[in-house]
Structure formats: structure tokens, C-alpha cells
């Protein structure tokens, strides 16, 4: 007989000892590495049904102007960031120090290089989106030609693919093991 109170009685009006799991949570947990506590199970992904009225519509002129403003602002921020990082790289002189100083400098330089690379890639994506606006092809999925949708573009104005097509691409990459 498992008695969680170990024979002790609860005082009148005192709250019951809370259960570590919510009432709807399963009791099973996955095991983790030795020395770590158990990890809770991962919930299954939630899929929302696609309604026929849920299709993205063409962007309005107001939405296009708003998205252009967001892209231009983000582009200006990236250009300033890239210029600053390049300036920092030039200013970082190679002072002779011990091996730990050299390792720290190399680590910081590698991180700055990765961040610079990420910013340059994003700048290219933004420039591509701005060019597509000039060609009047902005907002169309490059894989299907269907509208991407304002809500996705508001969150990521340089998006090239619709959510559905992007998911297909990611599934294909996972199945290839990339």
C-alpha cells in the first residue's frame, strides 16, 4: 500500500500536497543521462486543420508599403552591424600573449566571423525581397507561385516560401539526412 502522506493526517483546511504531475499528464517519462533527472515526454505536434477560407490573399498596397518599410529598416540595421563587425575585425590586433589569450582571441574571432556571415546572408535575402517588390513578384511562394500570406511576411518579410512548401522542403531534407 503506497500512502503518500506516510500515515500523517492533514490538518483541517490545509491544502492537499500538490501532485508533481498535472492530472492530465501521463505518468511515464523518458530517461536521460545518468546524474540528470527524468525529462518530461515531448507532446505531439499540434496540427490545425486547413480551412478553404484560410488561403492567403494577395497583398494590399498598404501591406506592401508596411513590409517594404520593415525590410528597409532591417536592411539599414544589418548594414550598420556588418560595418561595425568588419571594423572590429580590423581593429583586433594580434598582440602576443600566452596560449589562453590566443585561444580566447581565436574563439571571439570565430564567433564574430559566424555572426558576420549570418548578417551578410540575411542582407542578401532582404535585398532579394526588395528586388522582388520592384518586379511585382513579392509575396508569391517561389516553389508554388501561391501567395505566401501577410501574417507570415509580417513575421519574416524576406520569406521566399509559403509555410506549407517550407515544411515540405524541411521534410525532404530530413528524409535525405541533411
List keywords for this structure.
Four Helix Bundle (Hemerythrin (Met), subunit A), mainly alpha, about 50% helix, 4 helices, about 180 residues
Overall pLDDT, averaged? 76
Q: What characterizes the major β-sheet? A: none
How many helical elements? 4
Named CATH architecture of the domain at 59-90 and 99-176? Up-down Bundle
Structural class: mainly alpha
Global Rg: 26 Å
CATH class of the domain at 59-90 and 99-176, anyone?
Mainly Alpha
Helix-strand string: HHHH
Q: Could you say which overall geometry the principal axes of the C-alpha atoms support?
A: flat
Note the quaternary state here: single chain
CATH topology type of the domain at 59-90 and 99-176: Four Helix Bundle (Hemerythrin (Met), subunit A)
End-to-end gap: 52 Å
Q: Low-confidence parts lasting 5 or more residues at pLDDT below 50?
A: 17-33, 42-53
Q: Strand share of the residues?
A: under 5%
The CATH homologous superfamily of the domain at 59-90 and 99-176 is named DksA, coiled-coil domain
Q: What can you see in these coordinates?
A:
The chain has a domain at 59-90 and 99-176: DksA, coiled-coil domain (Four Helix Bundle (Hemerythrin (Met), subunit A), Up-down Bundle). The longest helix has 36 residues, at 99-134. The protein is flat. The protein has helices at residues 61-91, 99-134, 150-155, 163-176. The protein is built from four helices and no strands.
